[in-house]
Amino acid sequence: MTHIPVLLNEVLKYLNPQSNQNFVDATVGDGGHARAILENIAPDGKLIAIDRDVDSIVRAKSNLKEFENRVLFVNDSFGNILKIVEESGFNRTQGILFDFGMSTGQLENSGRGFSFQKDEILDMRYDTKIPIAAEDILNNYSEIELFEIFKKLGEEPKSKIIARAIVSARKKRRIRTTKELVEIIEKVLRRRGKLHPATLIFQALR
Question: Name one GO biological process term (predicted).
């Protein structure tokens, strides 16, 4: 099934890809935006497709296999984009796309605990070469450190209460799965409208 990204028309409007131009998709994900760009820069335009999640690179390669001669796939962080572009040999790049949302594949098929709607291990690493997973953070960081992560990265108003609940729960047993984390959060935080109590905490940990 072809991945259809959100805001596709808006992306194409502002990037305005034309025949034989070169572009960079710095967060290629499942390759939905990349496909549309490649179709517009045919026949000879090329694209650098970057993603730090190796599983996303695998999915993008499969979804974009018909364009393989015009795509350079790079499993790396977009923080290294200048080096990547320089080493690619692109003479000129007309535009760069950053899409900071999560792909459907990451939420539904990664097995790394990105979604609170699935019972999976608490990994949450885009790049599995990074040594620290979400499980390590939840079980080893201090209450103050957890509070700061939840407050700054998730903007969770009840960060202090949730951090305290996590520290209390891990004294009894190690927190290993998304289900266990969600249960801890639900004990101290009610649903706010349509927002699940765990939404902002998972956002912070990702």
Answer: rRNA base methylation
Residue 127 CA: distances (Å) to CA of 9, 15, 77, 106: 30, 28, 9, 12
| Whether the predicted model's global pTM rises above the 0.85 cut | no
Which tens digit of pLDDT belongs to each residue from 76-89? 999 999 999 999 88
Residue numbers of the domain that contains 102? 8-106
CATH number at residue 88: 3.40.50.150
Picking from 118, 119, 113, the residue whose alpha carbon sits closest to that of residue 138 is: 113
Same domain flag for 141 and 154:
yes
Structure confidence at residue 1 as a pLDDT band (50, 70, 90): very low
List, for residues 10-65, the tens digit of each pLDDT value. Answer: 999 999 999 999 999 999 988 999 999 999 999 999 999 999 888 889 999 999 99
* Domain identity same for 102 and 116: no
